[in-house]
Amino acid sequence: MTAPLISIQQVSKKFFEQEVLNQISLDIQKGEIIAILGKSGCGKSTLLNLVGGFEQPSTGQVLLDNQIVTKASKRCIMLMQNYGLLPWRSAQKNVELALEGEALSKIERQQRAQHYLKLVGLEDRLSALPSELSGGMQQRVAIARALAIHPEVILMDEPFAALDTFTRYYLQDELLAIQKEERTTILLVTHDIDEAIYLADRIFIMSPNPGRIHREIHVRSTKPRDRADSEFQHFREVIFNEFHFTQPQDTIEYNI
Ligand SMILES: Nc1ncnc2c1ncn2[C@@H]1O[C@H](COP(=O)(O)OP(=O)(O)OP(=O)(O)O)[C@@H](O)[C@H]1O
């Protein structure tokens, strides 16, 4: 096996007296899609923030390509649920903005922005303002903007949670197609069990107080997966059972 692209090594995180994460260890290979599932407050977003360099571990370390992560970098981009687009800039200008620090001519910036907007199916909406786009389209601009930077890793914190089911399915398929082409590594936090099974190569279930990795599930079936087939149902059942296991019977809360 080759060296992992991301190596989370015995990471614990405290906010004041509260231990939010305890001894998290996890290696991620280049090109993998990893989904993190867990009850609200178990530290999923904190884990993403540590990988992205937005927070520092209290103990342990996170390595990206064998180097300790000490700050945020363009190698590892966070894609937020609320898209983070500038409302006064067109779709194309929003993507171009992310490329401003790069050694590219104006024409190259425009071409790269157009290439990624085309990849997410927005070639005919280049000059539209975010307010003129649907939520799904805005999220596609945000995905194009993240991809245009050529990150090695995309961190996704419930990226499609605000979207209707069909838009979510459509974007999940788009994401898989683009990810296959670019071999981007994706670390995804979701409350959506089906989304985790549909997208991920491995799913990590976290238990709370403090957040720990409770179970790792390999999903080896080929993509795109069939949400209706028996294997998919099997994984769904396995994960539901885990949530029974990690929560008291009278407080079970399914976030699907
Ligand atoms: N910057 C911070 N300062 C203090 N406490 C924090 C900070 N960030 C997170 N926490 C606390 O850490 C715990 C875990 O939060 P986190 O957002 O990582 O959980 P989560 O699993 O992503 O939750 P959700 O699914 O609801 O988004 C919570 O109790 C939260 O209040």
TrEMBL record:
Gene3D superfamilies: P-loop containing nucleotide triphosphate hydrolases (3.40.50.300). GO terms for molecular function: ATP binding. Keywords: ATP-binding, Cell membrane, Membrane, Nucleotide-binding, Transport. It comes from the Bacteria. Residues 6-233 form the ABC transporter domain. The keyword Membrane applies. It is a peripheral membrane protein. It is found in: Cell membrane. InterPro entries: AAA+_ATPase, ABC_transporter-like_ATP-bd, ABC_transporter-like_CS, ABC_transporter_ATP-bind, P-loop_NTPase. This is ATP-binding cassette domain-containing protein.
